[in-house]
Design goal:
By secondary structure, the protein is α/β, with parallel strands linked by helices. Helix content is 36%, strand content 16%.
Amino acid sequence: MSISKRDEGKKVNSNINVTPMVDVMLVLLIIFMVITPMLNNKVNVDLPTAAAAVVMENANKEDAVTVAVTRDGKSFLGADQVTNEDIGSKISAKLENKTDKEVFLRADNRANYGKVMDTIDGIRTAGVSQLGLLTEKTEK
């Protein structure tokens, strides 16, 4: 009787079985494809409609601080012409004794956008907490 010897080391299979990995990846792909459109939902917000009337009432008060920008880029605080460098200090002087730091801005329809933004920057340097932008009411 002879002894049979098994050579198991020569028959070792070192190939990776990729089928389970592909199955898992396909399931993950399907899950992400289903979930992704749900993540892009936008939030709908109903804006108040009465706020425009409140702003106009506050802007028509005697002590309201209004700033106007004309089409040629000049800024006016009330009826006085001011430069963008001086507007912050003059507004802070007017708002010194007020509790609500609110300023209203009117800009001409054809005013340079950069000039309007420079005026807004000057107003913000005065420590204004609320800036109301005034427009003309259009009839339908």
